[in-house]
Amino acid sequence: MAWKQGLAKAVQELRIHLCQTSAASKGARDFVLGSYAELKKANPDTPILVRECSGTEAKLTARFDFGVEKSVSVQGLDAGGVSSKLQELAKSGEGLPRSGE
C-alpha cells in the first residue's frame, strides 16, 4: 500500500469511470467506497475524480505531465483487481518525462 502515498509523484490527475448499476462496474464501485478516502488523504493535492454514467465501461484514466493520458479497463474486476490496475498505471507514469513544476 506504500505506492498509494507516492501516487502524486507519478500522476497529475486520476479519473475513475464507472456505471452506477452494472455488475461489470461493481469492483470499481467497491474500490471507490473502500479506497477513495485513503487515496485522497494520502494525496490531498491530486485530483481524484469519480465519473458515473449509466452504461459506461469501468476504467481508470491517469493524466501525467505534459498532458499524457493512459487508460486501463477495469471492467469485471473486483476491488483488489482495480487496485492492482491502478498501481500498474501509476508505475507506468514513473518512466515518463517530468515537467519542472
What does this structure look like?
The protein is globular. It contains four helices and four strands, in the order H-H-E-H-E-E-E-H. The longest helix is centred in the middle third of the chain and has 17 residues. By secondary structure, the chain is of the alpha+beta class.
Helices and strands, with pairings:
Blueprint: H1 2-5, H2 7-10, E1 13-18, H3 26-42, E2 48-52, E3 59-63, E4 69-73, H4 79-93
Parallel strand pairs: 1-2
Antiparallel strand pairs: 1-3, 3-4
Helix pairs in contact: 3-4
How would a textbook summarize the main sheet? 4 strands, mixed
From the N-terminal CA to the C-terminal CA, the straight-line distance is: 26 Å
Which runs of at least 5 residues are low in confidence (pLDDT < 50)? none
* Overall number of strands: 4
Query: Average pLDDT value?
Result: 90
- State the helix count: 4
Tell me the β content.
15-25%
- Broad structural category: alpha+beta
* Strand numbers in spatial order across the main sheet: 2-1-3-4
Radius of gyration, CA atoms, in whole angstroms: 13 Å
Q: Name the helix and strand elements from N-terminus to C-terminus, one letter apiece.
A: HHEHEEEH
Q: What share of the residues lie within helices?
A: 25-40%
> Tell me, what's the shape?
globular
